[in-house]
Amino acid sequence: MFDRRWLLYSTTTTTATRLRRQPAETGLVAETTECMGKRKKHAAAGASSPSASQGQIDDGTEQLFTGFTFPDLPSHVIPALVEKRTVETVRSLADRVKPPLKPTGNICPYQVRSSPTAGKGLFAAKKLQTGDLIFSERPLIVTMSRFTDKTPADLEQCLQILWMRLPDEHGVVLATLHHSPNPPLPLQDIVSLNGWGFDPHPGAAYHTGIFPTYARCNHSCAPNAMARFDHATFAIEVRAVRAVAPREELFVSYVDVLDGHATRDQALRKDYGFACRCRICVCGAGDITNCAESDARRAGIRSRSGLIQRYRAWRDNPSSFASPPTEIISAAIASVVTCTREGLEPFAWQDLQVLYMCYGVLGDEKNFKKWRTAFRDCFLVNVGITPEYDVACRETEDPTRWKDWAVWKTMHATKDSE
Known about the structure:
By secondary structure, this protein is α+β, with helices and mostly antiparallel strands. The chain folds into 3 domains: about 5-250, Beta-clip-like (Beta Complex); about 260-300, no CATH class; about 305-415, no CATH class. About 40% of the residues lie in helices and about 15% in strands. The chain is built from 14 helices and 14 strands. The chain has helices at about 5-15, 85-95, 150-165, 170-175, 185-195, 260-270, 280-285, 290-305, 305-315, 325-340, 350-360, 365-385, 385-395, 405-415; strands at about 50, 55-60, 65-70, 75-85, 110-115, 120-125, 135, 140-145, 195-200, 205-210, 220, 225-230, 235-240, 250. Strands 1, 2, 3, 4, 8, 9 and 10 form a 7-stranded mixed β-sheet that branches. A 4-stranded mixed β-sheet has the order 5-6-14-11, with no helix packed on it. Strand 3 and strand 4 form a beta hairpin. Helix 1 (about 5-15) packs parallel to helix 4 (about 170-175), helix 10 (about 325-340) packs antiparallel against helix 11 (about 350-360) and helix 12 runs antiparallel to helix 13 (about 385-395). The chain is globular and about 75 Å long.
């Protein structure tokens, strides 16, 4: 067996030129309206039930070295450094964890190859539609995000323990992820640049996980892919947020995409060491007008609210219900256009919901199906497969299944007949 410590400390400089300047954290929405691009370094990773074969090391503090296993791969252990209470909680949930989902079809949806913008990247190997699963994977290692009782040297030693517990092939993968040239603390550098934040179980504090395929995704402020952590499979799911053409590069976001250009640029330079060259930032580079316009649209997306309430007020008020919801529909469409223009389609889910409900109440089958399908796919991107997805599929096929189908149309037809 070769000494992987030599690999780690010798490749930090030799591989830097062929690996892209990129970390892997993104701002993705689990409940979608606030998360796309907010998985910072302080956010973290997950864990699963301790393996009987992986010894636990109690260092006398509230952290515990352990390993996590799942029923579908009982021999595969995910090295972890977590709080003791996290170990117990995840152990109680582990038996219910399902295997990670697999993309449909016989062709892997992505390829790893050279990127024109940042070294290596992920590219679509076939045409993708909104909601299509690109890949799903569990973390190589899991660690807490914040330590108040450890020096940087202590933390590096902890990460070395996790790394040395990996099988050789996984250890090589982790050691050759993107890193800074000649970092004094190599593993902390790799985790900082490639870690993705998530909660190992509902209600848990954030931990940091290394997801190797996701770590190959480059950044854009108008990403065409988005990640979410699925507790049911203890895996990250990455889906297309809009139609993606074959050979198009797949991008996620490392920062809060609703921040203004200057704030995003500062965060990317400080945390990841590069300036963004996506279509939003290139368009705005040196053009204060374009930057200001984009910033205003993104601020509007963050602050907008009330369309659902406006719809319900119209629906429940007999006097307003006498007229079609024309203004509500116009406002919702305008918001969808804004999100699409900025490349932030996942944030339009509430607008899509309002649109399908408005057209459903009106009994407009064509537009109901259009917007019900769009909402279903956007919802899938944000929260994954849920019972709502199956309901949406049935209602798209047969709109009369929807509870409020054509009530406005029926009421006015009755009044006209009188």
